[in-house]
Design brief:
Helix content is 42%, strand content 9%. It has twelve helices and seven strands. The strands form two sheets. A five-stranded antiparallel sheet has the order 2-1-7-6-5. Strands 3-4 form a two-stranded antiparallel ribbon. The longest helix is centred in the middle third of the chain and has 16 residues. The two termini are 17 Å apart. The protein binds glutamine. Glutamine (GLN) binds next to loops.
Length: 323
């Protein structure tokens, strides 16, 4: 299987990519294991059968199958992009004083900080993500939210909005995240106004996207920060290595090591059931299926990525690859 679509491959519906996606979709459609996220009451209402896979290449081709237009909230996948924004707002050195780059080996919502530095371990778990969000610049809550919505627009290529029901559902039940924020406030890792930081964090998680959007966002990272469809620059290319490194080591929480070993590409999941995966210089992958495994990763999503990685030879250290 060639990695890049050649001129004949590019026609949607007849390319090897399309065939692989159709194959994987029909293979895993009937897999009914796992459960939808229930700790955020609004998320528990999702249809568990929804399932879509999308690939966006860095030369602007899109391949998709299943419910790819279905909207859902981006949840933890937001952490990747907000980390990029915080890096742009403050630079690498300052951001490193507030959030580390070490995997936790713990669940995404574990209430833990690094013993010595008191920093949250990394920006891909809730603690680190709340700290990252608290770094977003802006004059007041509205401006900060608008800056994040504008950031999403650059990556996706259209305007996005916050789902108010999911946002309020999460805000009224997010006691664990509130506890985490208080712990970080205690150690001076985030500033006084933690309610505002938490609101912005819950809002960034409640932005509605579809599977195609996920693939285009991932492809933008694969394309050095430039959206391959709109050609707009979404993030400074100098921060791509920071973003992809923490995705690679921490993006799948306490499954990150096994993911890196088996699948071998930077990725991030969210409790909505979305996964993004980035093949640098080649493509972004988006998968959406709300049935989650015990670690909060999309069950079908993990299987699809594992098989895509094998069939297309995507593992970064695959010897048959380009290095
Ligand atoms: N893993 C996730 O997607 C978690 C995000 C969710 N908004 C939370 O804070 O719990």
């Amino acid at each position: 299987m060639s990695l890049m679509a050649n001129s004949q491959d590019q026609e949607i519906g007849s390319s090897p990519f399309s065939e692989v996606l159709k194959d994987l979709h029909s293979q895993y459609k009937s897999l009914q294991e796992g459960t939808v996220a229930k700790y955020i009451p609004e998320l528990a209402k999702v249809n568990p059968n929804l399932f879509s896979i999308c690939i966006a290449t860095t030369d602007g081709q899109i391949y998709e199958v299943g419910d790819y237009q279905q909207l859902f909230t981006i949840q933890s996948i937001s952490k990747v992009f907000v980390y990029g924004q915080a890096l742009e707002d403050h630079g690498r050195d300052y951001v490193l004083t507030r959030v580390g780059v070490e995997p936790t080996g713990e669940a995404f919502n574990a209430i833990i900080l690094d013993e010595q530095s008191k920093r949250p371990y990394n920006p891909m778990v809730n603690a680190g993500a709340i700290a990252t969000t608290s770094l977003i610049k802006g004059n007041g809550a509205t401006e900060r939210l608008n800056r994040l919505l504008e950031m999403y627009r650059r990556y996706i290529g259209r305007d996005v909005f916050v789902d108010i029901s999911v946002f309020t559902s999460e805000r009224s039940t997010g006691h664990r995240n509130r506890a985490t924020a208080h712990l970080m406030l205690n150690f001076g890792m985030i500033d006084q106004n933690i309610e505002e930081a938490l609101d912005l964090y819950f809002q960034q998680c409640s932005v509605m996207v579809n599977c195609r959007d996920l693939a285009v966002m991932a492809a933008t990272l694969a394309n050095k920060g430039v959206n391959p469809i709109s050609k707009e620059k979404a993030v400074d290319s100098c921060y791509i290595k920071d973003i992809l490194s923490v995705m690679y080591t921490c993006g799948m929480y306490n499954f990150a090591g096994e993911w890196a070993y088996k699948i071998g590409i930077p990725a991030k999941s969210g409790v909505c059931g979305g996964i993004i995966a980035v093949v640098p210089g080649q493509m972004g992958i988006g998968v959406f299926s709300p049935l989650l495994d015990a670690r909060g990763n999309s069950l079908r999503g993990v299987k699809v990525c594992e098989e895509l990685s094998q069939r297309l030879g995507l593992h970064l250290f695959e010897c048959a690859g380009n290095w």
